């Protein structure tokens, strides 16, 4: 579940300060021999799909609406987007230079679950809270039959350097 924060992150100067005010930190991403976490093409930077890992552990498995409830899925989206931001910082060097262009949120969900956008909102809200106007983005939320490692959520992004 997304925490309600007593300290408003919007009152701080930098994106890193706002992230810290929320009690959050960007995770370290593990290298993978099969893909890179980001690739620059022209002025766009494509962020590979990120799962809700924290400290090397996948935080949840299963299908939303069958094994995972909506609030848990929103929390997992929150963690997946932090991994996206970590890849973005690798690409541009500083959180204040990250501008989100587009976010694609995949939600492993039952066919009758129609609240993929509510799962994606958790990630969108965090991006805007941390990055301000640079966090506003175009977005698609899609329900899928399954994701890697039976993860309930995967998030992919296109960013630009601000």
TrEMBL record:
A Pfam family it matches: YjgF_endoribonc
Residue stretches making up the Endoribonuclease L-PSP/chorismate mutase-like domain: 18-153
Classification via InterPro entries: Endoribo_LPSP/chorism_mut-like, RutC-like_sf
Protein name as it appears in the record: Enamine deaminase RidA (YjgF/YER057c/UK114 family)
Organism: Streptomyces paradoxus
